[in-house]
């Protein structure tokens, strides 16, 4: 059955959904509306893992091959703490420039017959009246979601730390962490390559450090100059880069929605959910949303049933990811708790930051227990059994406290 789809938002989620829908049925009329000019994008590089690439090859081999060819790879993680360095090997990660990713997806969408309209700002009142399906893929500040926020049950939960998303001409050969102690507390960065001459560098710190260093008052150029000085060792003389339109410091906001569809309007990607950047899952989750929605529309001709299935499947799949992101953000918010450990132990617990047990066990003890669990199957089983129970208990108490506060 031919359907008319209006997708608002030309990011990875919206573009990939349009590709999949046209592959499923070339007679579908699919239009993607994007408010920004073609070729302009925020951000630097995005990360993903081999598992996603394998799924993309199954869904659309042509775009997957282009993505694979233009990605850089790493398998090591490196942590610089004060003047010490430790390196661990791990799973293979991939990085690609966000600009190049969108270029690949837009080119493939056009090839399949998708209509792309750039510099088209679409508000809730401007939606095509004859569209069978309207997809809100317009990000965390979704203009399409906002008028129905009560129906969706939208909630934005701000994080505590400040961060800024920068680029650099330093090409990291591993996923790199650098932790610098200042007179005002710790400041740190995450760096990863995404091209032959560029890397992403995200800088984060606690509020007291941000104001103590004067980053709240500094001009953008002065702020970058200070960061270049603080991270001089890891940058090795290379510059930090901002966006032409400005690169503000932010606090991360976690978005959740109780339901993801309203009539023929459905939420996709960051319009439906966000997860803290420290787990590097944003682009992966957006593409997985598109895969799930396309599959639901293919297998359930009835639109309400298809949207209900999509929502049910994706919300279930997101639960462990959202939990991991929550604990990861909290790990960094409580960074001083771990910085008295030797660097190799701190780095080991950095890798364990998704654990619901870690916040409640002294770091040195957790490290020893984790090492022992790696050798004893009985301890591994106990850890797997205990972790989810602690997480559920803490989550239930947080919900009860929030409900009490809202009643008061």
Please characterize this protein's 3D structure.
It is a single chain. The longest helix has about 30 residues, at about 305-335. The radius of gyration is 22 Å and the shape is globular. Helix 1 (about 10-25) runs parallel beside helix 9 and helix 3 (about 60-70) runs antiparallel to helix 4 (about 100-110). Helices cover about 40% and strands about 25% of the residues. The strands form two sheets. Strands 3, 4, 5, 8, 9, 10, 11, 12 and 13 form a nine-stranded mixed β-sheet that branches. The protein has a six-stranded mixed β-sheet with strand order 6-2-1-7-15-14, with helices on one face. It is an alpha/beta fold. A hairpin with a 5-residue loop joins strand 10 (about 185-195) and strand 11. It has helices at about 10-25, 50-60, 60-70, 100-110, 150, 205-210, 220-230, 230-235, 280-300, 305-335, 345-350, 365-375, 375-405; strands at about 5-10, 30-35, 45-50, 70-80, 85-95, 115-120, 135, 155-170, 175-180, 185-195, 200-205, 240, 250-255, 260, 265. The protein is built from 13 helices and 15 strands.
């Amino acid at each position: 059955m031919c359907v008319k789809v209006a997708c608002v938002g030309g990011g990875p989620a919206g573009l990939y959904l349009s590709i999949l829908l046209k592959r499923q049925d070339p007679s579908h009329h699919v239009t993607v509306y994007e408010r920004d000019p073609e070729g302009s994008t925020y951000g630097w590089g995005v990360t993903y893992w081999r598992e996603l690439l394998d799924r993309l090859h199954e869904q659309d081999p042509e775009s997957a091959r282009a993505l694979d060819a233009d990605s850089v790879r790493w398998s090591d993680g490196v942590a610089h703490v004060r003047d010490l360095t430790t390196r661990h090997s791990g799973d293979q990660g991939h990085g690609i420039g966000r600009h190049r990713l969108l270029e690949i997806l837009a080119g493939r969408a056009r090839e399949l017959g998708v209509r792309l309209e750039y510099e088209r700002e679409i508000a809730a009142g401007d939606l095509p009246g004859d569209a069978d399906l309207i997809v809100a893929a317009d990000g965390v500040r979704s203009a399409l979601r906002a008028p129905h926020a009560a129906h969706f049950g939208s909630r934005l939960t701000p994080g505590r730390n400040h961060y800024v998303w920068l680029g650099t001409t330093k090409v990291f050969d591993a996923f790199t962490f650098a932790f610098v102690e200042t007179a005002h507390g710790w400041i740190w960065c995450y760096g990863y390559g995404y091209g032959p001459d560029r890397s992403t560098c995200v800088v984060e710190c606690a509020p007291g450090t941000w104001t103590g260093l004067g980053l709240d008052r500094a001009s953008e150029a002065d702020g970058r100059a200070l960061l270049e000085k603080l991270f001089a060792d890891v940058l090795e003389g290379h510059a930090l880069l901002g966006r032409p339109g400005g690169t503000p410091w932010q606090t991360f906001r976690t978005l959740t929605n109780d339901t993801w569809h309203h009539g023929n309007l459905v939420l996709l990607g960051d319009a439906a959910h966000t997860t803290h950047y420290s787990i590097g899952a944003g682009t992966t989750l957006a593409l997985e949303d598109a895969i799930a929605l396309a599959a639901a529309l293919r297998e359930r001709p009835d639109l309400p049933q298809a949207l209900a299935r999509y929502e049910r499947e994706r919300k279930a799949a997101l639960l462990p990811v959202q939990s991991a992101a929550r604990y990861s953000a909290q790990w960094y918010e409580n960074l001083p708790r771990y910085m008295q450990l030797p660097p190799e132990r701190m780095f080991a617990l950095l890798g364990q930051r998704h654990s619901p047990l870690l916040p409640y066990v002294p770091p040195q003890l957790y490290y020893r227990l984790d090492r022992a669990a790696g050798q004893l199957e009985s301890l591994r089983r106990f850890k797997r059994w205990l972790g989810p129970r602690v997480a559920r208990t803490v989550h239930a108490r947080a919900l009860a406290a929030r409900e009490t506060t809202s009643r008061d």
